[in-house]
């Protein structure tokens, strides 16, 4: 039975996603002998675009994993994609922290952004394990709020559910 007071699982999941998106999330890595904490917030459209650009290069063919030599194919995927995944995490961590509307300052900040991005990518390459990576990628995907982005695209493209239907002329 479902009372008005009881929340459905979908409503509870949506509330959790909203909290995650609003608050962001923290994760820790050990760099050298120090524990370092990083925070990831909901990405802006620019950050989402950069993450998506790298993600699209990580296509996995189903045929590759169905062949006899799965381990060899998995190693090829690791070889080609570890740096991309570390870079995605670095982009998500940096967010828009190096953005400004002032043109001259923007050029200077772009240099700092590239240096910091490379540094974080390198650090994540040496500190993040595959078991930690899966949790981070799920969290980054959730905080990216792709569902709301997709809904916005549908609304702006005119593919609305309230759009009048055209009657066919016979």
Describe this structure in words.
The protein is mainly alpha-helical and 170 residues long. The protein has a domain at 44-138. Helices cover 64% and strands 8% of the residues. The protein is built from 7 helices and 2 strands. The protein has helices spanning 9-23, 45-56, 62-66, 70-94, 103-127, 130-143, 146-157, and strands at 25-31, 34-40. It has a two-stranded antiparallel ribbon. A hairpin with a 2-residue loop joins strand 1 and strand 2 (34-40). Helix 2 packs antiparallel against helix 4 and helix 4 (70-94) crosses helix 5 (103-127). The longest helix is centred in the middle third of the chain and has 25 residues, at 70-94. The N and C termini lie far apart (49 Å). 10% of the residues are buried. The model has no long low-confidence stretch (mean pLDDT 84).
How confident is the prediction overall: mean pLDDT?
Answer: 84
Which value, in Å, is the CA radius of gyration?
Answer: 21 Å
**Strand order of the main beta sheet, please?**
1-2
Q: How much strand?
A: 5-15%
Low-confidence sequence ranges = none
The biggest beta sheet reads: 2 strands, antiparallel
Distance between the termini: 49 Å
Total count of helical runs of at least 4 residues: 7
Judged by helices, strands and strand pairing, the structural class is mainly alpha
Strand/helix succession? HEEHHHHHH
Tell me the overall shape.
Answer: globular
Q: In total, how many beta strands?
A: 2
Proportion in helices? 55-70%
Quickly describe the structure.
The protein is mainly alpha-helical and 170 residues long. The protein has helices at 9-23, 45-56, 62-66, 70-94, 103-127, 130-143, 146-157, and strands spanning 25-31, 34-40.
């Amino acid at each position: 039975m479902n009372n008005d007071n009881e929340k459905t699982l979908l409503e509870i999941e949506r509330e959790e996603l909203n909290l995650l998106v609003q608050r962001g999330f923290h994760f820790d890595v050990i760099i050298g002998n120090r524990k370092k904490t990083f925070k990831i917030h909901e990405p802006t459209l620019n950050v989402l675009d950069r993450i998506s650009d790298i993600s699209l290069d990580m296509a996995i063919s189903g045929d590759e994993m169905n062949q006899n030599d799965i381990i060899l194919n998995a190693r090829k995927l690791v070889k080609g994609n570890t740096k991309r995944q570390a870079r995605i995490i670095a982009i998500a961590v940096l967010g828009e922290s190096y953005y400004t509307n002032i043109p001259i300052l923007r050029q200077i900040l772009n240099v700092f952004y590239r240096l910091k991005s490379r540094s974080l990518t390198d650090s994540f390459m040496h500190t993040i394990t595959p078991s930690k990576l899966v949790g981070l990628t799920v969290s980054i995907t959730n905080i990216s709020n792709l569902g709301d982005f997709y809904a916005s695209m549908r609304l702006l493209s005119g593919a609305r559910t309230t759009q009048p239907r055209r009657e066919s002329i016979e």
